[in-house]
Every structure is written in C-alpha cells, then in structure tokens.
Amino acid sequence: MLKIVKKIKNTETTQQALEYVSEIREVKLAKLIMDLKNEYNLYEKLERIGYKIAIRKAKTSEELELCAVTIEENYYGEYDADLWAEEIRIKAYGALCYINNYFRSAQYEAFVDFTKTVKIQDPFEPISKEFLKLTQNYAPIHLVESIK
What we know:
Elements: H1 2-9, H2 14-33, H3 37-57, H4 61-74, H5 81-93, H6 95-103, H7 106-118, H8 125-135, H9 141-147
Helix pairs in contact: 1-3, 2-3, 2-4, 4-5, 5-6, 6-8, 6-9
C-alpha cells in the first residue's frame, strides 16, 4: 500500500496522479466483482488517498476543477462526492466567487420565481442584493462562468 501511495506522490502533475487513481479504481472494481471485500476496502482507501494527493498537487484553478469533476464522475466511496467537489471548487475559486455564482444560478432564479408566484417574500432577497453589490466587481466573469 505504501509503495502505491509513494508512486502517486512521485507523479509530476495532477493529471498523472488522477490517471494513476483511475487505474486503482479499475482494480478496486475487479476486487468487488471477485467478491474480495477486504481488498476492495483497501483499494477504496487508496483511491481516496490518491484523490487527496492529486488535489494537493494542483497548482491552478483549472487543475482543481479537473479534480472536482473527476471525483464527481467517478468516486463512490465513503465520502459524499458532490460535497467533496464543492469544497474543492471553493478552494479553487474562493468562497465569494462560489456564493456569487449561487445567487446568479438558474436554481436560485427559479426559487425567486416561485416566491413571486406564491406571493411570499424571498427570505434571501436582502442578503443576495447586498452580496451581489459587494461582489459585483470582485469575481472575474471567467471564473463565474467556469463554475457553471
């Protein structure tokens, strides 16, 4: 196990680390098919450690986004993949940019339309207006667009 972790640590780029993790995932699935539960658990831990190493190797927001997308698409382990990917994106783009994107999202707009239809006040309206004023010039558009 330590040899595998060292190999992942010795990779030079995030992409190489993620490719190595995908190989671990393939072995893990083979262990599941062969009904080797103990070895499956070992490879699941290796996969999680590999993703953490890949995240640490990431130097740009694009590499962090690649890690987040890979985890969302491929990780089915102990942790919630969507929550983990959100944490990575917050690390990549900053909390302000991520929250700014939320208040500009289609889901939030649908919620606002719902409150207007039902004729109730949007409980987040004062917060969202103030936040959008504060962050209007803060978040670069390309970061906001890349999160969507």
